[in-house]
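Entry 14. Structure prediction run on the chain below.
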Amino acid sequence: MSLEAVLRPILVIGGSIALTVVVVWLIDRALQRIDHRHPETPLWGLLRRCRIPLQALLAAALLLGSYDQTRIPVVVHHAAGIGQALTLVLIAATAWLLVRAAAAIVESSYTRYAASARDAARVRRVRTQVTLIQRVVTAAVIVVAAASMLLTFPQMRAVGTSVLASAGLVGIVAGIAAQSTLGNLFAGLQIAFGDMVRIGDTVVVDGQWGTVEEITLTFLSVRTWDERRITMPVSYFTSKPFENWSRGGAQMTGAVFFHLDHSAPVEKMRQHLHELLQESPEWDGRAWSLVVTDTTPSTIVVRALVTARDSDALWTVRCQVRERMIDWLRAEHAYALPRIATAPAPALRDGPEGGRQH
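Output returned:
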């Protein structure tokens, strides 16, 4: 074996790998410098995540264009298979690079918007939209890459005409079979751009109170107050009613009910409620009230209304008002707590025949 036969494969393969490493290193250094010069945007730092797919792309492209120059007998004998394999790697690396770059651009855009926006509800809406857009882009890139990889096989190109001829029938059958999946897909897009529900919204679904944690193209996850996760298809939110406590602004109004005796000092309770709210950092100061809303033969129903900046703060305020008001009533006005009136049983006496009578 001649020296040229040994050096040629080393130069071709090693040169391609070395050139790939050098080019990617230079690009990474350039992105790092730009990132230091422009700290206001995280785009350049996020684009550095594309190093590995970029290396795979450049290496596959260089080897695809030069592998036949190695003149190795095995390579020459299997040139078609090696070329096919490198083409598949090139397509996969390109798709991987596009997905990483799209994710970096979307994440950078959202981060800059969230840093400058003041409306929390609008930020959650944009977050929901960009998340679903990123998922749609990823799915589209994967589908196109898979189709491109299949079309590289001669057998697939040969049956292309038959596939196109039967596409109408297959589309009808697939549409019927995947009706539920397609419904969830379009429901996900409707939720994202119809602003029905957003990531971070507080919702009540089937009597369960929680926060929307994740929205995908097919399902939605709600995190309940006790850390459970409720997962349901997104079509649920377009076909059934649900409560969204965050829509139209995060500010909320809540009520606390007290069942008390008729002698309860309502005016003093009203004054004490105001004092409690002034000491509570969760109360937003917008409104409050305390009124008697109902009566029964033994009790009255007193309703206290409070406001808060969001659902979590409202829950805290309601619990504080309930606990501290009951403590105050028990300590200062115990007579106001509901009581059950009872009477002593009549005394029993002996009857004329030894039995007991009333």
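The first helix runs from residue 3 to 37.
Filed with the rest of this week's runs.
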